[in-house]
Design goal:
Number of strands: 0
Helix content: 55-70%
Oligomer: single chain
Distance between the termini: 64 Å
CATH architecture of the largest domain: Orthogonal Bundle
Number of domains: 2
CATH superfamily of the largest domain: RNA polymerase sigma factor, region 2, helix turn helix motif
């Protein structure tokens, strides 16, 4: 296949490539970028294309792999690695943001509902909400880890039942 035939075949695939890129990205700008990057990789790697094989399948594979690699790169860039002692940054509590009258009312109702629970449910649940691990709660309260997990689960169920109007 000559360079002219190769390039002409690529240009003729543009509408199909654009549709496939839209199905992958669901964004017009990202789809255009993906098509352009696919063209660049196909032209750059033309020497790796075996003549008389399926050019369309080869180009679509390039597009799919480019999309997957880009997605994985984005995930890696957004991953935070906490190298501090005791994972300080990962264990920081997030800001609650501004408190509106509705949210403060709901928060006080939630506090009241939690405080209405028996100690055997309230204490492990509060410790869990404060960031303690199941194992730490079990050790401090002298319980088995399965007991801690079930009490936290049942506490959530009770709170959802008590606060069902606030869901």
């Amino acid at each position: 296949m000559t360079t002219y035939e190769f390039n002409s075949s690529l240009i003729n695939m543009k509408s199909n490539l654009k549709r496939f890129a839209m199905s992958l990205t669901s964004d017009n700008e990202k789809a255009n970028d993906l098509v352009q990057e696919t063209y660049l990789k196909a032209i750059t790697n033309r020497d790796k294309f075996v003549d008389y094989s399926n050019l369309k399948a080869w180009v679509f594979t390039i597009m799919k792999n480019t999309f997957i690699n880009s997605y994985r790169k984005g995930i890696r860039e957004n991953t935070m690695v906490d190298t501090t002692e005791d994972l300080y940054y990962l264990n920081l509590t997030e800001e609650k943001g501004s408190i509106s009258p509705d949210s403060s009312y709901s928060e006080s109702e939630i506090e009241r509902a939690i405080n209405s629970l028996e100690d055997e449910f309230r204490i492990p649940f509060r410790m869990h909400v404060e960031g303690f691990k199941y194992k730490e709660i079990a050790e401090q309260l002298g319980l088995k880890i399965g007991t801690v997990k079930s009490r936290i689960f049942f506490t959530r169920q009770k709170l959802m039942n008590i606060l069902r109007d606030y869901a």
